[in-house]
Design goal:
Length: 511
């Protein structure tokens, strides 16, 4: 029987399917009108309108058409972006705009996201002079189209953030913009607050790098500040090989796993489930604000919040509908996310995997063959914690593995082992790292003393990563995968997951 919630789920899925189809295939306006007319006929014309199933089908077709149309409009806006007509011309142009994101300071240059009247531009300039969030700039240079490299589509990577033009080493003149002086305008007050957050973040970053040396300092900076710039290419490669890169990224999988660990950590500290929910939510919000609240982190945080809410009310199975609804809202706001934003894909799939697979893995790990006797209460709680972390990590990784292979062309064979050895320590690293960094701002010596525990944990992590990355045959390279393979992989995964869940339902009914 189709309940109201299931019908609504069908509508959301139809809308998402429309966006998906139009992301890969071109639908003419005539075909969209045909779908609209067909849907209206099924809803309003007897005898179709007297049959509930056909009426639901009619609405699903209408939502499908809406998804196709919405994605088409987004593509059209991208194509007709006013700035694009100035791309790749010989003459220089003058732009006046405002820095709207934290400057991305690298070893040899700085990247600035600048908003002007016609849209957004990514500026690559020299490291000095330095610019800040909120600076108003006059920029003179040549606009270029983002390049498509052999192993990386830079054009699509920027398009997901609605950036279609780049400029390299232009002449820049600061002409105003001081977010440190708020006024009554709501926009300026929010800019003032955000600039203060970024200022505190910079002080915390300086404290971390004063108390610790690389690679511990660079990994801690990435974990608690989302600052991946200081991680060397060598260590990025090691993280990729061992399947632990997500701990240094503000990725969907990282935040979803972190949310679950925080929930269980709160309960392990003696909090009730409801109290642990608020403990985890507050920690997640602080983390997202600390990394600068980029859209990717906000989207991942929403997914993590849904998971925590389902844990709080004890209705994990119902969370899938809320997840699909939130995904539909995000895609309505920006349909390009579905095809171009790997972070959105990982957030959605990691949450879905935890909803459907984590209970199954938990059931497997709770079988008598996995039980350990005579450990005492503390030992049993520790083992249960590890089992839950392993179940969550495996669930997220199984559902995200095909999309990782498709986008990055590799598969780590040691990822389950390295994640179970590392992931449970991430919240403790974040807590101790934040405390030592905060104390280091007030008094550097005290911060250095309190950095010893986090140094020990980070040293352990680096040793684990270094050891496993040097083993032979730790990962497979799988390149040039077709998107059809991706569809088949998720179809097989969906069938297996459905079968396992049905078996678990039957097992429950037998009790």
């Amino acid at each position: 029987m189709m309940t109201a919630s299931k019908i609504f789920l069908c509508f959301c899925l139809s809308f998402i399917l429309g966006i998906f189809l139009n992301s890969f295939f071109i639908f003419s306006l005539v075909l969209i009108l045909f779908f609209l007319i067909l849907g209206i006929l099924l809803i309003s014309i007897p005898p179709f309108s007297k049959r509930k199933g056909l009426v639901i089908l009619g609405f699903c077709i209408l939502f499908l058409s809406t998804g196709i149309y919405r994605q088409g409009i987004a593509e059209l806006k991208a194509i007709n972006n006013e700035l694009r007509k100035y791309n790749d011309l010989e003459e220089s142009i003058i732009l006046i705009g405002e820095v709207i994101k934290e400057p991305d300071v690298r070893d040899s240059n700085t990247k600035l996201t600048v908003r002007i009247k016609e849209g957004k531009v990514l500026i690559t300039t020299r490291r000095y002079p330095q610019y800040q969030y909120g600076d108003k700039l006059e920029i003179k240079g040549k606009l270029e189209s983002p390049k498509v490299f052999e192993d990386f589509n830079y054009k699509d990577y920027l398009a997901k953030d609605k950036i279609y033009s780049v400029m390299y080493y232009p002449a820049i003149k600061k002409i105003g913009g001081d977010p440190s002086s708020p006024n009554l305008g709501g926009g300026r007050v929010s800019a003032f607050a955000f600039s203060k957050i970024l200022g505190f973040k910079n002080k915390l970053r300086e404290s971390i790098f004063q108390n610790l040396s690389p690679p511990q300092s660079s990994i801690l900076g990435a974990i608690i500040l989302g600052d991946k710039r200081q991680i060397s290419e060598q260590w990025k490669e090691k993280l990729n090989i061992t399947g632990t890169r997500h701990i240094t990224c503000v990725s969907g999988m990282h935040i979803i796993i972190l949310a679950g660990i925080l929930m269980w950590l709160g309960m392990a500290l003696g909090l009730w489930r409801g109290q642990a929910f608020y403990f985890a939510i507050i920690f997640l919000i602080l983390f997202i604000v600390m990394v600068g609240a980029p859209p990717s982190a906000i989207r991942a945080g929403i997914m993590g919040g849904l998971f925590l809410l389902a844990e709080k009310i004890g209705r994990m199975r119902s969370a899938d509908r809320a997840l699909v609804f939130v995904a539909a809202l995000m895609l309505f706001q920006n349909p390009l996310l579905l095809k171009l934003d790997v972070g959105f894909q990982l957030s959605f799939l990691a949450t879905l995997g935890i909803i459907y697979l984590m209970p199954i893995f938990q059931d497997w790990f709770n079988r008598p063959s996995f039980a350990l006797q005579n450990l005492g209460e503390l030992g049993k709680n520790s083992i249960d914690f590890i089992k839950n972390i392993l179940a969550m990590t495996l669930s997220a990784q199984v559902f995200t593995l095909p999309i990782i292979i498709y986008n990055f062309g590799y598969m780590s064979l040691v990822s389950p082992i390295t994640n179970i050895l590392i992931v449970p320590l991430v919240p403790f690293i974040m807590i101790f790292g934040f405390i030592s960094g905060l104390l280091g701002i007030v008094w550097q010596t005290l911060g250095w003393i309190f950095s010893w525990p986090v140094w020990f944990l980070l040293t352990y992590i680096t040793k684990v990563i270094d050891f496993f990355s040097q083993l032979p045959f730790v990962y497979l390279t799988i390149e040039n995968i077709s998107w059809l393979w991706l569809l088949i992989a998720y179809l097989i995964l969906a069938i297996i997951t459905w079968h396992l869940n049905e078996k678990q339902k039957l097992k429950f009914l037998e009790y």
